[in-house]
Amino acid sequence: MVSNGTQQSARTDEAIILAGGFGTRLASVVADVPKPMAPVAGRAFLYYLLDALQAQGVGRVILAVHHLADTIAAVGPAYRGMRLEYLREGTPLGTGGAIRQAISRIEGEDALVLNGDTYLDIDYQAVLGHRRATSADLVLAVRPVADGARYSLVEADADGLVTGFLPTGAAGRPGLIGAGVYALRRGLFETFDLPAAFSFEADVLARLTGNLRVQTYRCDGYFIDIGVPEDYRRAQTELPEIAGAAED
């Protein structure tokens, strides 16, 4: 598991959490709260993400919210010493539009971006460090899977530079998947003409990779997507154990 004991003093790094989705896949199981607030072993899933960020030295978090935004904003302006800010989308901006708005508000040169419905046991500081060391426009955390049926597989060269993505549905094929954690340069979107609402995955990663320096950071840690009902049920027992171990 990730050891966080050496990261307590760093308080300047920033993170963005994408928390504005409608949670349609999870509606049959949890219908009255946004996905990040879905209860996992008695705690909102969002708190597992915030705990991991705080333990690794992140000092400021911007939450991009839309669906049931007040439920998420009720967490308040601070959590365990971190500043929390809420970017409310008047209309849905998609993952790309939300990231573009949030990244323009960061105070430093780069920030982490996390999906609000996935958990990855990873060294966030190493992801940021890899972006800075490689001068990449963005770093994509990738994780190996034995079966890519549910995912778009990431293709990368020997130096870890992303060269493309395979379509979702590569059943039975092993490979690397994007695991819901990124490190982005602040000015990433400045040179692209994009609409107000767009998909980060489809309109930036998949289509613009040739114009961007996108590096991978491989992680073999625990990964779960609670937006899928069967994985949400599995998270009830697995995530508290994994998250607890990661904070030790």
What do these coordinates show?
It is a single chain. The protein has 248 residues and is α/β, with parallel strands linked by helices. The protein has one domain: Spore Coat Polysaccharide Biosynthesis Protein SpsA, Chain A (Alpha-Beta Complex). The chain contains six helices and 14 strands. The strands form three sheets. Strands 1, 4, 5, 6, 7, 9, 10, 11, 12 and 13 form a ten-stranded mixed β-sheet that branches. A two-stranded antiparallel sheet has the order 2-3. Helix 1 packs parallel to helix 6 and helix 3 packs across helix 5. The protein is globular, with a radius of gyration of 17 Å. The N and C termini lie close together (9 Å). The relative contact order is 0.20.
Q: Let me know the CATH homologous superfamily.
A: Spore Coat Polysaccharide Biosynthesis Protein SpsA, Chain A
Helix fraction bin: 25-40%
Do you know the CATH topology? Spore Coat Polysaccharide Biosynthesis Protein SpsA, Chain A
Structural class: alpha/beta
The biggest sheet, with number of strands, parallel, antiparallel or mixed sense and barrel status, is: 10 strands, mixed
- What is the residue-mean pLDDT, rounded to a whole number? 90
Radius of gyration: 17 Å
Distance between the ends: 9 Å
Spans of 5+ residues with little confidence (pLDDT < 50)?
A: 3-11
Give the overall form.
Answer: globular
Write down the secondary-structure element order. Answer: EEEHEHEEHEEHEEEEHEEH
Task: Assess the beta-strand content as a share of residues.
Answer: 25-35%
